[in-house]
Design goal:
Layout lengths: L3 H45 L29 E4 L2 E4 L42 H16 L3 H13 L4 H18 L12 E5 L6 H4 L7 H7 L13 E5 L3 E6 L4 E6 L9 E11 L7 E5 L5 E2 L3 E2 L6 E2 L11 E7 L11 E3 L10 E3 L3 E3 L1 H10 L6 E5 L2
Parallel strand pairs: 5-16, 7-14, 13-15
Antiparallel strand pairs: 1-2, 3-4, 5-6, 6-7, 7-15, 8-12, 8-16, 9-12, 10-11, 12-13
C-alpha cells in the first residue's frame, strides 16, 4: 500500500528531473548564442585591427570600410643633386585644372603683348627730337651688331634725317657707308634689302640692256658684280642689281657730296649711300640749285678747254685739270635753268679738295669721281647744290 506521501515523492523526483532536463535544454542554446557573440566580437576586433583572416581567400573577404582617399597631387619635380635628386613639394595650383582630354576645349590664339613704341614712327623722322634720334642710333647700331644690316641701316638713316648733331651725323654717315659696302657695293644680295635683287641673265641680254631697267649705268653693274669684260656675260648667270637712280647733294659749306637712293617705299626718306669730299668754286662761284645729269655728257678721259683763257687740254695731257672723268649738268629750276658748262669732275690737284678752288664746278678725288661716274645715270640722276 502506498501512502500518499510516498506516492507524491517520485512525482516530485520526476518533476525535478524533468525540470533539470528542461534547464539543460535551455542552457545549450544560450551557450551557442554566447559563443557566437564572442566569435563575432573577436572577428570584428580582428577586422578593425587590420587582420586579413588567414584562412579566408582574398576574393571572399568582406572589404573593410576604408577612410576617404587622400588628395591626389601631381608628382613633384626633381632637383638634380650629387648622387641623386631631391624633390620639391608640388606647387599649390592657382587656377582650375585643364579640361579632360575626352572633352577638349578650343585653345584661344596666343596674344602677343604690344610694347609701347620707344621711337616716333619712321614715316616722319624729320620731327624726331634729339632724344629720339639717340634712341634710333642706339637701335640701329644694335641691329647692325646682330648682323641685321638692312634694319640697322634703316634706323640709322632715319636718325640722320632728325635733329642730329654735327658730330653724330658724321659718325652715322660713316656707319651707313660701311654697311653699304656690303648691301650696295658688293656682289652679295642680302635678304630683305628693298634696294637690291638677283637678276638671272637671259639669252641675248647684255649689261647695257639690263642696266636701264634699274636706272643705273652698265658700268655700275659690272663693278659690283666683279665683271671685267661686259661682253663675256654668261646665260643664266646670277647678277646683283641695285634699284637706282642715285642722286647727289653737294653741301658747299662742309665741302661734302652725299649720295642717296630714292625712297624704296613711298613716303620714306631717301636712303643715304655714302659721302665724298669735294672742292667747290673759288670766290663762291658754284651756283646753288638743282640739276640733272645731261644726256651724252658723261665722258672718260675728255679734252677740255679753259673758258677763261681758251687753253686746250688734250685727252692724254697729264696737266688736264679736270682729270679722267667728266659729268655734265643741266639746270632744272629757275636759278639754274639757264646755266651752262657746270659739271662734276676729277682733279690733278688732290690738295685742293676741301677748298674753294675750281671755276665753279665740283671737284672730286680721282678714285671718287671714277666710282661716282659709274653710279650716276644720264637724265635720271639729280644733283642738288646747297649752302649747308
Amino acid at each position: 500500500m502506498v501512502l500518499d506521501s510516498q506516492r507524491a515523492r517520485p512525482e516530485t523526483s520526476r518533476g525535478g528531473m524533468a525540470s533539470g532536463h528542461r534547464r539543460s535544454k535551455m542552457k545549450l542554446p544560450l551557450a551557442i548564442v554566447v559563443i557566437g557573440a564572442v566569435a563575432l566580437a573577436a572577428w570584428s576586433m580582428i577586422r578593425a585591427s587590420g587582420g586579413t583572416g588567414a584562412n579566408v581567400p582574398t576574393h571572399q573577404r568582406e572589404p573593410a570600410i576604408a577612410p576617404p582617399p587622400p588628395e591626389v597631387k601631381p608628382p613633384a619635380p626633381a632637383i638634380a643633386g650629387l648622387g641623386g635628386s631631391i624633390s620639391q613639394p608640388a606647387p599649390i595650383p592657382t587656377q582650375a585644372p585643364a579640361p579632360s582630354p575626352a572633352a577638349p576645349q578650343p585653345t584661344p590664339a596666343p596674344v602677343t603683348p604690344v610694347a609701347p613704341p620707344t621711337t616716333p614712327p619712321l614715316t616722319d623722322p624729320t620731327n624726331a627730337t634729339s632724344s629720339q634720334v639717340t634712341q634710333m642710333m642706339t637701335r640701329g647700331r644694335s641691329l647692325i651688331q646682330q648682323n641685321n644690316l638692312v634694319e640697322g641701316r634703316k634706323w640709322l638713316n632715319e636718325a640722320l634725317a632728325g635733329q642730329i648733331s654735327v658730330s653724330d651725323a658724321h659718325a652715322v654717315r660713316q656707319e651707313i657707308a660701311s654697311v653699304n659696302q656690303t648691301l650696295i657695293f658688293s656682289p652679295q644680295v642680302v635678304a630683305g634689302d628693298p634696294y637690291t635683287e638677283t637678276r638671272v641673265v637671259k639669252q641675248g641680254e647684255l649689261l647695257a640692256t639690263i642696266a636701264p631697267a634699274y636706272n643705273v649705268p652698265w658700268r655700275f653693274l659690272a663693278k659690283i658684280n666683279n665683271i671685267s669684260d661686259p661682253k663675256l656675260l654668261r646665260v643664266d648667270a646670277r647678277l646683283k642689281a641695285v634699284r637706282g637712280p642715285f642722286h647727289v647733294v653737294v653741301h658747299k659749306a662742309s665741302y661734302r657730296a652725299d649720295v642717296y637712293l630714292d625712297p624704296a617705299n613711298g613716303p620714306d626718306t631717301p636712303m643715304f649711300v655714302r659721302s665724298f669730299p669735294v672742292a667747290v668754286g673759288a670766290f663762291d662761284s658754284t651756283p646753288l640749285g638743282t640739276f640733272i645729269v645731261r644726256k651724252h655728257s658723261k665722258l672718260v678721259n675728255p679734252e677740255w678747254v679753259n673758258p677763261r683763257t681758251g687753253q686746250r687740254f688734250s685727252a692724254d695731257n697729264p696737266n688736264n685739270p679736270i682729270g679722267e672723268f667728266w659729268i655734265g649738268l643741266d639746270g632744272t629750276d629757275d636759278a639754274t635753268r639757264n646755266l651752262r658748262g657746270y659739271g662734276l669732275h676729277g682733279t690733278i690737284d688732290p690738295a685742293s679738295i676741301g677748298q674753294q678752288a675750281s671755276m665753279g664746278c665740283v671737284r672730286f678725288l680721282p678714285a671718287d669721281i671714277e666710282l661716282l661716274f659709274s653710279m650716276l645715270a644720264e637724265e635720271k640722276s639729280r644733283v642738288s647744290i646747297r649752302e649747308q
